[in-house]
Amino acid sequence: MSSKKKLSGWPVLFIGPHMILFILFFLVPAVIGVYVSFTEWDLFSSPIFIGLDNFKTILFDQDSLYHTQFFNGMKNTLFFAVISVPLCIAIPLLLAVALSAKPKMMRFFQSVLYLPTLFAISAVMIIWGFLLSKSFGPIKEVFGIDINFVGTQPWAWIAILIVTIWWTLGGNLIIYVAALNGVPREQMEAAELDGASSVVKFFRISLPSIRNQLIFTTVMTTIAQFNIYGQPLMLTGGGPNNSTRVLMMYIQENAFGSSTSVAGMSSAMAILLGIVIMIVSVFQFIMIKKLER
C-alpha cells in the first residue's frame, strides 16, 4: 500500500513544473489580456474599465483608425493563412512519403530539411534578407533576376511564403515520417499482392493511418500561421503599402510601438484574433472528421 502511495506522487513530480510554467506564462497572461481588453490603458496609469467600447470601435466604427487596422490586418492574415497552411501540410507530407521509401542518404536529407526549424526567426530573416536583396543578393548576382522581392507585389507575399515554408517544414516532416513508419507493413504488402499502385496505397492505407497526426499538424499549423509576425516585420516591414502588414504587427505596434500605448485596444484585437483562430480550428476539425466517414 505504501509503495502505491509513493508511486502516485511521481506523475505530479513530472507534470508539476510544466503546469507551473503553463499557469505563469500562458494562463495568467491570457486572463490579464482578457481583462485589459475591456479597459483603456496606456501601460503606465491605472486601467480604466470601459466595457465593450474597444470591441465596438474595432468592429463597427468605420471612421476609427483601429477599425481600419484590424480589418486590413485580418485580411492580410487570412490571405497568408489560406495559402500557407495547405502548402505547409502538403509539402512536408510529400517529402515524408519520399523519405519513408528509405532512399540512400535518408538521414542526411531528413537532417538538412529539419535544420532550419532550429534557427531563430531573426537568423532566418538575416539569411533570406541577404539572399533576396535587390542590391547585392546572390539570387540577383548568380541568376541575374532583377526583382524587388520585398518591395513589390506579388513578390513580397511569395518571398514570405517561401521563407515560412523553408523555416517550418521540418516540424511537420518529422511527425509525418514517424507516422508513416508506423503504418502496418502487413497492410501494404497485402495491397501490393492485390496489385495496388503506390497512389492507391497512399490514399487507401497510409493517409487514413496518419489521420490523427494530420489533424494535429493542421490545427497547430493554422494557429501558427494566424500568429505570423516575424517574417513580414523583418522581411518587408509590412510593405509595400501595408499589403503584408498582418494583424499581429498592428497589435504589437499599438501596444508597444508608439509613444502613446493603447494596450486595451491591442488586447481587444488579440482577443478577436483568438476567436477567429478558434472558429477556424473547430471548423477544420469537424471537416476532417466528416471526410473520414
Give a summary of the structure in a few sentences.
The chain has about 290 residues and is an all-alpha fold.
Describe the structure.
- The structure is a single chain.
- With 293 residues, this protein is mainly α.
- The protein has a single domain (53-292), classed as MetI-like (MetI-like fold, Orthogonal Bundle).
- Helix content is 73%, strand content 1%.
- The protein contains 14 helices and two strands.
- It has helices at 2-8, 10-36, 53-60, 65-100, 106-114, 121-131, 138-143, 155-181, 185-193, 198-209, 211-226, 230-235, 247-256, 263-292, and strands spanning 39-40, 48-49.
- Strands 1-2 form a two-stranded antiparallel ribbon.
- β1 (39-40) and β2 (48-49) form a beta hairpin.
- α3 crosses α4 (65-100), α4 crosses α8 and α13 (247-256) runs antiparallel to α14 (263-292).
- The mean pLDDT is 88.
- Belongs to the binding-protein-dependent transport system permease family.
- Keywords: Cell membrane, Membrane, Transmembrane, Transmembrane helix, Transport.
- It comes from Enterococcus saccharolyticus 30_1.
Q: Tell me, rounded to a whole number, the average pLDDT.
A: 88
- Helix count equals 14
The CATH class turns out to be Mainly Alpha
- The radius of gyration over CA amounts to 23 Å
Query: Span between N and C termini?
Result: 47 Å
- What portion of residues belong to β-strands? under 5%
Uncertain stretches of 5 or more adjacent residues: none
How many DSSP E strands? 2
Query: What's the overall geometry?
Result: globular
Structural domain count: 1
Biggest β-sheet: strands ordered side by side in the sheet: 1-2
* CATH second-level architecture: Orthogonal Bundle
Order of helices and strands: HHEEHHHHHHHHHHHH
CATH superfamily: MetI-like
Structural class assignment: mainly alpha
CATH topology: MetI-like fold
